[in-house]
Amino acid sequence: MKNKPARGSVKRDRLLEELGVVRLLDDGDPFVLIGPTYEERDDPNVHMRIAFVRDEERRICVGYASNQSGEWAVEETEVFTRRAYEYWQRRLKRIGDYVPEVKK
Fold it and tell me: What is the value of pTM for the model shown?
């Protein structure tokens, strides 16, 4: 049985379950990309997405990842809360433009 870190609110847990984040991270994915892709306004060749990852203490963190170096990599994160998730959604919309589909 895996040790599961203590989690927060029911709404928070429900969102993580709906997104499938915990399952994917527990299956060994180093990070999970969620939601639409945005291209950076200053450099349209750079794409960004919401990312979830576990930190050293196995807490779920949210932030964003980009393909600036050619491969998707997590750039910045903070411990997951609904507020933090909503912040990163707004941030990507502020600094980027929606891209309908990006080839991987």
Answer: 0.86
